[in-house]
Design brief:
single chain; about 325 residues; Arc Repressor Mutant, subunit A; 3 domains; 7-stranded mixed sheet; 13 strands; about 40% helix; elongated
């Protein structure tokens, strides 16, 4: 969304009887323009505009630092995309005036105080998937470790955590849809890029809801948690790692092969409904995840969260590890 679109959409979401008039084009490119906010009681406040996409706290820190020493007779007004609750809290704590595209607003200037929680209306979608749970588990191993395609069905059953019969059924399913071919020269996956996009997008529907999980409260520090052998970070913690720190994690997922209650007791973290740390049972068998498998799982988890900042992180990880078509993966 370009700056003009951000401005237009944010202005449309302003509360009734509020009006924002603006002129774009800042002084020596120091800001994006000036704006006059007209209130319902005739209040008029002039702001310096900063129009920017915000997906993480560091972007807000940069906005605050940019204008901390900027000589101006007017307060700053940030116009941005929908902010998460954590980013809104940062704005309030640091007195960053903003309006966003979800109708959220925080403005505190002499003679005017406005704080509105933004609305998030998720577009209704019909949940549909291309693959069954068994096919998803087989594809996770085949797509992240292509050499495994030539292993025996028994070996694949052990790696994927599905039955021997399900391995056969999954291959038949893929063959019938022309994603798999078997010949004298061996087995071959067809349209691997398309298959991988479908796997990542199907994960939230076909696989994630089937996994056993336990929600725990947020630890004092993510660094205080030590993973056991064959455990893996997922979600935002993995996203922070694979994006070289671009994402500052607010939640975390641990994929574990051990009983969930056993790990909860060992971690010593209180279970809580809707907690920010989730213990999730591994859906694979005796398969050691490589970097491609970790990236696939991470991107799938980030997209399943339906969080704007996580989608941005997923783009970075895709660029660095998966190289999948952005238009297909992010549905442009």
């Amino acid at each position: 969304m370009k700056e003009e679109e951000l401005l237009s959409k944010a202005i449309e979401q302003l509360p009734k009887n509020f009006l924002l008039q603006y002129e774009t084009g800042g002084i020596e490119h120091m800001h994006d323009g000036l704006a006059r906010l007209l209130g319902p009681e005739g209040e008029v406040t002039t702001f310096v505009l900063e129009v920017k996409h915000i997906h993480r706290k560091e972007s807000l820190v940069a906005v605050r630092e940019k204008f901390s020493n900027f000589p101006s007779d007017f307060p700053i007004l940030l116009v941005c995309n929908r902010l998460t609750s954590a980013l809104v809290e940062y704005c309030v704590d640091n007195q960053i005036n903003f309006i966003d595209t979800s109708g959220g607003a925080y403005i505190q200037v002499p003679g005017l105080y406005l704080f509105i929680e933004g609305k998030y209306v998720k577009e209704p979608v019909v949940a549909s998937s291309h693959f069954t749970e068994g096919v998803m588990k087989l594809l996770f191993v085949l797509l992240s470790c292509p050499e495994s395609l030539h292993e025996t069905y028994r070996s694949l059953a052990e790696k994927t955590g599905i039955s021997l019969g399900m391995v056969s059924k999954a291959f038949n399913y893929l063959e019938a849809r022309r994603y798999f071919r078997k010949s004298q020269n061996g087995r071959r996956l067809m349209n691997e890029g398309e298959l991988q996009v479908l796997w990542v997008k199907d994960y939230a529907i076909s696989l994630r809801p089937k996994l056993s999980s336990l929600s725990l409260s947020t630890p004092v520090s993510w660094d205080e948690i030590t993973l056991m052998s064959d455990e893996y970070w997922g979600g935002e913690i993995a996203g922070a790692k694979l994006s070289d720190g671009y994402l500052i994690p607010e939640s975390g997922v641990i994929f574990t092969p051990y009983p969930l209650l056993q790990r909860w007791k060992e971690l010593g973290i209180k279970p809580i409904q809707g907690g920010k740390l989730q213990l999730v049972s591994c859906f694979w068998g005796n398969f050691s995840l490589n970097s491609r498998a970790e990236a696939m799982l991470c991107v799938a988890e980030l997209l399943a969260s339906d969080d704007d900042r996580n989608r941005e992180t997923a783009r970075i990880i895709n660029d660095n590890y998966l190289y999948l078509s952005e238009s297909d993966l992010f549905s442009y």
